[in-house]
Amino acid sequence: MILELMGKYGRVFLCGGLVCLIGQLLINKTKMTSARILVTFLLAGVILEAVGVFEYIEEFALAGATIPITGFGKSLAAGAIEGARIGLFEACTYGMRAVAGGLTAAIVFGFVFALLFRSKSKTA
Amino acid sequence: MKIGAQTYLPQRRAFISLVADIAGSDEALGNLREYIDTAIDCGEWGCSSHEKTETRMREEIIRSLLEKARLEPKDIDCLMGGDLVNQIVPSTFSARSFDIPFYGLYCACATFGQALSAAAEAVGAGMNNVICCTSSHFATAERQYRFPLELGTQPTPTSQRTVTGAGAVLVSAYPPKWRCPEITAYTLGKIVDLGCEDVNNMGAAMAPAAFDTIRAHLRETGRDESYYDMIVTGDLGRLGRELLVELMQKDGVGEGKNVNDCGCMVFAPGQKCGLGGSGAGCSSLVYCAYLHKLLVSGQLNRLLLAPTGALLSKDSSLQGESIPGIAYAVAIECR
Amino acid sequence: MIGRQEYTALVRQASPRTNEAKTLFAAFCVGGIICMIGQAVSDVFTEFLPLDEKSIAALTGMTMIFLGALLTGVGVYDKIGYHAGAGSIVPITGFANSIVSPAMEFHSEGIIFGMMARMFGVAGPIIVSGVCSSVVVGAIYYLVGVAV
């Protein structure tokens, strides 16, 4: 039981770490800024899901694949694919529906925390 | 009096009779901790925005300069200054508090050099007392040029940290009773661009401008680099200084042995400042807090101060433009 | 004065390099730990909440976004990011950070044109590219489905 748990979390750590390591390599080699990195990984998630590979990665990596922003892209694509079975309108809108929770949380928490806190000058 | 394509001697003697400075809490813990007049306690200093903090810093030092000089605002002919914020708001807003004619200047981090040259020129043209004040604040500059403060980004290895600080000098036609330096020559800068595009490598973008102005200054005054006890650039940082020395040696201008940089002087080793300090307040803070005191005490006699500026905006770099640089050289000597 | 090309070469040669090993190691560890926290949150929800897999996934994402937003609010996330780089940018908490940090930054410009308008200064491209790409994927799947 413990061993099983350790193995699972070890996998999550390794895979999640690996995704971030690729991101860091991109930063070091290309001087990409954070918005570009996030867009790149999001699109990678969308494409991997669209070609049907993401589920195999997710099966192995678990949160190591879904917690990075690739998971957000995966949800978008998965929602769109699900909608496409119903109709064109659903194909276009179900992507947003699938990530509605995450986006709502980001915007609401963003607004609330901006009301509560202000950015501070940083010490050297 | 014009003595070369870019270099002038003041028509009347222009003394830098008094200085005042203020520094952020990190700068006050840096290399110059023993020299700094006033330090603010935190990045905000009780103000509701960082722009207001910078404005308040300027008000404080201009007021303290007037007090030290025992002058009223009406005795000052002109207040000159600039900073890095949109439309130089801290400069103009701090000037609201004083009933003094105002010249707003902008040349990014070279503004202090621009202001000193303009002051020497103005004194030559008949003004008697001119105050030059430039400032910068880490938080306002981050917002102006980079990212939100709370965004978790990693600085690149060539980045520099904007100095929170300001310095104000009184340039006067009247010689004070004490030993004090004067502006003996000034060289206006040209915009120089050798195609640097990395916004996180300002030192490399500005080094050619510093080189160009220093070379013009030495050539047109007929002086050798050894004439000066110190040649101090504004905010090239460690990489920019290295590049400047290399350019000087390649061109045969000099060895660059007495070249130093305000950005390299501000922070102590171990502070998270990348390759050094930067900002419009960097050269004014270092001059007012440190170099001026060396001149007054006699540890330095001849100083060439060459504040450097990188003339970019957030949009110009997104449009793929390279970063032009500028430097003004001001010879400050005790005679 | 030397030419542009020569100077560019000089700058490249003189510029200090990123400490590859250190930054990669930090990104790997921090990224891995954030993902492990996400896994733990998901496991706890699965254990105690009577919800389907999809809802658990969404709830996990929302919890992580909350954590990222909170750490940004109290001024800790940027310190993590200083060392971790991509390790704290790539996880969903980094997305939260990219929304909360500009909103906080423009607190002083007021609620409407400060916080609300500037909130998407960093994350805007992520939302736009995500929505557009999902529409493209949906449309392709729909058209392929119709054709077959």
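Chain B touches chain A at residues 24-26, 30, 42-44, 50, 137-139, 147-154, 156, 161, 164, 198, 200, 267, 271-273 (CB under 8 Å).
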